[in-house]
Request: fold
Amino acid sequence: MESIKPIKNCVEGADCFSASSDTDNKKITARQLGIGVLGLVAWYIIYKQLLPFSHFFSYGLLGLEKGSHLGEAIQFFVYDTPKVMMLLTLIVFVIGMLRSFFTQERTRKYLAGKRETAGNVMAALLGIVTPFCSCSAVPLFLGFVQAGVPLGVTFSFLIAAPMVNEIAVILLYGLLGWKVAAIYLGTGLLIAILSGWVIGRFKLEHWIEDWVQELRSAEAVVIEEKLSWADRIDRGREAVRDIVGKVWIYVVAGIGVGAAIHGYVPETFMASIMGKEAWWSVPVAVGVGIPMYSNAAGIVPVVEALLGKGAALGTVLAFMMSVIALSLPEMVILRKVLKPKLIAVFIGVVGSGILFTGFLFNLII
Amino acid sequence: MEIKVCGPGCASCEKTQKIVEAAIAATGVDATLTKITDFQKIAKMGIFSTPAVVINGEVKSVGNVPKQAEVEGWMTA
Reply:
């Protein structure tokens, strides 16, 4: 089926994307809907069996002693691996479908008309759902500059997109409960909004590389896409194949580390080095986390295990956020469009925001 | 026919290039395929999300991996 219409060049400011509102020419059939519902029910039933199965496997089948180091580690691994993979598959599928509604073109057009402050808030929220990976960061940034989105608003988006990761939110919810998920979501958004606002106040436009500035007069090519529900389901499936196919290794590695911590690290060990009393643990966690790069899906099981061993929530959150939001490969890519000073400001502002979050939560919880 | 695949070299860009190569082979169209990885050049063409496919100077797709049938359609049209 031809799903792409002939090209139409959109001039800045012209209202072209609202004209591309999606008509659902292909309806989902009752049969497809039935398969979907049955699939969900089966998913739920299997999901509920995972905990009893992990106990049976580790303590019954393998005959390991409950409470022993190896037994605890194996049970953790056997329980968490399928659990996280099942959650991940479902989330990625749903988000892959949802994302077909939020294209980069639409986001750009929308933010170009927004003033700062309100723009920072909208940019941070859009950052959660808009497709984004470190290799599309640069074209996306260029597109924002070209469309005339204010620099501070652009940064709110650039910070929120990797940091407030929807996969991390839902995995935190699944593994640690809604409170931790809400805290992560709330503080992540706040950091993105405030950091972007602060960067906007500094008026640092001259720290963008010169050739990027010249793009303001360029015209963006926009291609309208008409997607039916069947196409959107396809997008969901593709997302599962792409993302789950890529991150499963991080997840298994993350759960492996988590299982080792869970089984072998003494209960009070983490409390002494990552506990509330150790104030210096927050900056250390951020310092260690920034150069590290891991997928959000891989870091959550480690977080779960650290919290279980008495690490303080603020410290663990700070570690997780610095691993996900600031990474060396991303900085190297951004260097092509930003002067080093602006990258330093970016790291400084976001890093301080994360530090603040860490201290705050250690103080109040 | 001149075909350009624009993208910094991520997984989707590689996939797009393979699809275009397959489409060239399947249709037997006489085409030269160039890969553009430089952000500056890509942006100058008005492309702000990758991967993108450009045929004879006309931007055919932006920001997604096209299907092989689609690419063949553009080439034979």
The mean pLDDT of chain A is 80.
